[in-house]
């Protein structure tokens, strides 16, 4: 049997020979093969890189804080501006002690409960005279007294005269007080008299001549009328215990 030239005894085509590789070298792996690694990105960052990153973050935070403080100082509320309003100084209120009388009060003449309830002093005014009066007898007063209070002796002393009377009933006292207010003239101030939060009567302030004024008020069955300097008589009314 004849054999083709260069043929294989088995009849198969000869396998082409692989190119020889250099001695001691391994086969080259394609760079796009599955599982291939890129060693250019596998090196961990150094400590210096971390320090630089932290420094950048710190500088950024300081810059943000500085901008916020600058806005608060020069923008709103603007406490660093020259035209920023300063906090007002607190107001201190000094309350003066009540005036102390320097005179001895006059001896009392009335002995009834109503008479002894009338004060010896009012503010810095002292009782200088005390006498019973029949000025309100026609108005059905049970008793009435005229009291003169002053802060000293002589013509230069400030003087307030008080007439105080007691009536049998509240209704009679109310009628008497209304008549006294009408006789005094047109009042410039009126209001209620309150005792322990309850309305016990009314008051009226009537101006007079030469800087004088009269305050007429009722407290239950008691009616009182004070006459004196306009800047003093209202204080006497407010301080009077009845």
Automatic annotation (TrEMBL):
<keyword id="KW-0812">Transmembrane</keyword>
<feature type="compositionally biased region" description="Low complexity">
    <location>
        <begin position="10"/>
        <end position="28"/>
    </location>
</feature>
<feature type="transmembrane region" description="Helical">
    <location>
        <begin position="55"/>
        <end position="76"/>
    </location>
</feature>
<keyword id="KW-1133">Transmembrane helix</keyword>
<protein>
    <submittedName>
        <fullName>Uncharacterized protein</fullName>
    </submittedName>
</protein>
<feature type="region of interest" description="Disordered">
    <location>
        <begin position="1"/>
        <end position="43"/>
    </location>
</feature>
<keyword id="KW-0472">Membrane</keyword>
């Amino acid at each position: 049997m004849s054999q083709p030239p260069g043929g294989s005894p088995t009849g198969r085509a000869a396998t082409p020979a692989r190119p020889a590789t250099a001695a001691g070298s391994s086969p080259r792996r394609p760079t796009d093969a599955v599982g291939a690694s890129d060693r250019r990105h596998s090196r961990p960052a150094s400590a210096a890189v971390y320090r630089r990153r932290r420094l950048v973050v710190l500088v950024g935070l300081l810059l943000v804080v500085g901008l916020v403080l600058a806005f608060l100082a020069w923008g709103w509320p603007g406490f660093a501006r020259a035209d920023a309003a300063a906090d007002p100084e607190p107001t201190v209120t000094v309350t003066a002690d009540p005036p102390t009388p320097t005179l001895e009060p006059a001896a009392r003449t009335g002995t009834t409960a109503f008479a002894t309830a009338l004060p010896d002093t009012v503010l810095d005014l002292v009782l200088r005279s005390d006498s019973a009066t029949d000025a309100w007898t026609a108005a059905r007063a049970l008793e009435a007294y005229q009291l003169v209070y002053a802060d000293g002796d002589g013509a230069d002393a400030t003087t307030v005269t008080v007439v105080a009377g007691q009536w049998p009933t509240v209704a009679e006292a109310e009628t008497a007080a209304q008549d006294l207010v009408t006789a005094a003239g047109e009042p410039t101030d009126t209001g209620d008299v309150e005792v322990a939060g309850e309305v016990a009567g009314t008051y009226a302030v009537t101006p007079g001549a030469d800087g004088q004024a009269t305050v007429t008020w009722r407290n239950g069955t008691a009616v009182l009328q004070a006459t004196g300097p306009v800047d003093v008589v209202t204080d006497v009314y407010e301080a009077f215990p009845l």
